[in-house]
Amino acid sequence: MRPAELPAQDDGKQAFRAVMTAASARTHVLAVVRGNWDTSGRPPAEQAVTDLLLVTSELVSNAIRHGGGVVAFEATPARDGIRLTVRDRSPDIPTVAFGSGALPVGHDDGGGYGWPLIIKLAYDIVIEPCADGGKAVSVVVPLGTGPEPTG
């Protein structure tokens, strides 16, 4: 598998899709949710999917803007949600990733809203250096279920 390509669900067949942008990452994440999450007949709550897509966009955008680009992207089902993992080329660990999640008062320090949103919407945040350079950022975004089906 080449860097930045991930297997995607396609009617049970293994396919590969390049994930180089936030848009392509969101498309991949939606395919994972549709193909793997709804095993109980209750789809994830709409707000939970919106939160998942926001976290996906923030992680991928950070890798592009601050990490030298996306090297690899994964979205895998977790016990109560989706684990997102983004690898980039920078070894720098963002210190705000382990902050309080408070929104910045201003943009004077170069910080934005991305990490505070990730901290509020995800858990199990892990940032590890990669043996071949760069780092991997991994989070779990919970997916609550929607209302009981009627009928």
Automatic annotation (TrEMBL):
Residues 43-139 form the Histidine kinase/HSP90-like ATPase domain. It holds the Pfam family HATPase_c_2. One of its GO terms (molecular function) is ATP binding. InterPro entries: Anti-sigma-factor_SerPK (IPR050267), HATPase_C_sf (IPR036890), HATPase_dom (IPR003594). Coiled coil: none annotated. Keywords: ATP-binding, Kinase, Nucleotide-binding, Serine/threonine-protein kinase, Transferase. The keyword Ribonucleoprotein does not apply. This is ATP-binding protein. It comes from Streptomyces gibsoniae.
